[in-house]
Amino acid sequence: MPASRRTFAAAAVAALVLPLSACGSGSDDGGSADASGKVEGDITFQTWNLRANFKPYFEGVIAGFEKKYPGTQVKWIDQPAEGYADKISADAAGDTLPDVVNVSPDLVAPLAKAGLALDLDKTAAKYKKEYLEGAWASHQIPGMTGTYAFPWYLNTGPLFYNKSLFSKAGLNPDQPPKTYDELFADALELAKKSDGKVATLANVPTVEDFGRYGVGLMNKQGTAFSFNDTKGIELLTKYKELYDAKALDPQALTATPESSGKKFLTEAVAMNPGSALDLGNFKKNAPNLYRNIGITDQITSTGHVNMYVMGVMVNSKTKHTPAAVAFAHYVTDAEHQMSFAKKVAIFPSTAGSLDDPYFTKEDGTDETRVRIAAAKSLKNAVNYTPVLFSEQMKTALRNEVAKALQGKESPKAALDNAVKACNTLLQQQG
């Protein structure tokens, strides 16, 4: 992927769910091939839009693996970002899925259900301790036992806020909101003092936001969504109050991360999520904002920030299971994840890596400060977006949230309808 924070984050959370044509009848033993034999043979490795920026890196990783394991040969395939899910779907249906595949958790789910993703809890359990607990769990599927991809790189980021806008509203620029109650109170104050000209937030709540608020998103069996509980209704009611007061940007109903970022850049919005990469953008394109930038933690009721995660899956039908598992592990081991993390603003999912001085030692720059804060928060972060939450489900939730904010439905009715629609779509996934 291109080395922009938004591209990495978007790719990591994009709900690109495979069509039903890719999902055959689930196989109980589809993920239990033996990986204990000799590491040898030719395998294919597919990445997701990484060749343009990281060709030398991956060629070096492959050369290192082939040197470590004589008798192996890795063919690297890189697919464009657009249509990646469709490509995987077609390969799955045509029995041409590569041996090792770069995936996100939502892409793993239908493959695992179809018996095409190797269960690493059965074939590679010895490696589990090498990874952060939350990262390893990110490729587990509700209603199924097992883990279906090695965790690869992670991303998260702080909240940026505009100190100047806080000061103009009479708020302490050195005391940003730390809780949801403080966030909502500050947002209403900012809107009031600016006569509705300055919104604090620019995006409607997503399923991830409901998760951070402490809403129960799904039942443990993975058979039904449940974000229409009391806390879910409470959160959407708060957002309705913000929307009516123009504390939530009026264009939030159609906003994208990019458009929200531009609003923050032009100082029309007081707070926005981001990462260390954004600081360079602020410095170059919005020097006045950069001089007044504040950095604070993601707001969460659970004590766990959100984690975006990528993974590396092994095709359960590979003819060279030992080699495919060994390579997937090699790409995602601590040494190679650290090397990759220093080339682009992402974070390793391997246990202990976040204690490296690169992620702990201050040097006086804001970029390092953000990197250190993000690394610290990732140690117990979780991926709030349910693995089974598809693009269609995201659209259903967004449409109902819009109706609630516009006053066309009550928050309760909107979430009841969203849950009903999402549960129908879940049953159709098979």
UniProtKB/TrEMBL annotation:
Q: Which UniProt keywords apply?
A: Cell membrane, Lipoprotein, Membrane, Palmitate, Signal
Q: Which Pfam families match?
A: SBP_bac_1
Its recorded name reads Sugar ABC transporter substrate-binding protein
Q: Kindly give the PANTHER family that the UniProt entry links to this protein.
A: ARABINOSE-BINDING PROTEIN-RELATED, POLYGALACTURONAN_RHAMNOGALACTURONAN-BINDING PROTEIN YTCQ
Q: Does the keyword Lipoprotein apply?
A: yes
Q: Where is the signal peptide?
A: 1-24
Keyword Signal included in the entry's annotation: yes
Question: Which InterPro entries would you find in this protein's record?
Answer: Bact_solute-bd_prot1, SBP
Q: Which Gene3D superfamilies match?
A: Periplasmic binding protein-like II
The record ties this protein, via SUPFAM superfamilies, to:
Periplasmic binding protein-like II
Domain of life the protein comes from: Bacteria
